[in-house]
Amino acid sequence: MAQTDPFRGYNFKVEIDGITSTAFKECGGLDSSTGVVTYREGTDPTLGQRKLSGLLSVSNVTLRRGITSDHSLWDWRQSVASGDLQRRDLSIVLMDDKGEEQIRWNLQNAWPARWNGPSFDATSDAVAIEALELTHEGVEVQTW
Q: Which residues cross the membrane (predicted)?
């Protein structure tokens, strides 16, 4: 059996409404969990509990990038803040070392719940980073 090497975490791109952006430094928060509901039947002679699956929960996804003159993320956040909730489909795509798509996480009905501006330090030469936290209504995974 041939050994399969894991994919590297730096080789990803983000697509928002089908438009590719590889300018993100970091993407985090891909998480899904199922709640647990416990109960005890009244006729059960033991004191044990039964466990059933509850509601599916997905975490917010945070995108970070160097801030530039492209203010499209800020504009999207501002539209939501002013009451115009613009939901968009979002894909996070992991590629192999050859640049070929391997895994795609599709997030449905995403919108920016939070924007964080950069921190400033006059004694540092670090890039100014903005972050956008996106909430969404579910994730679907596609593999090749």
A: none
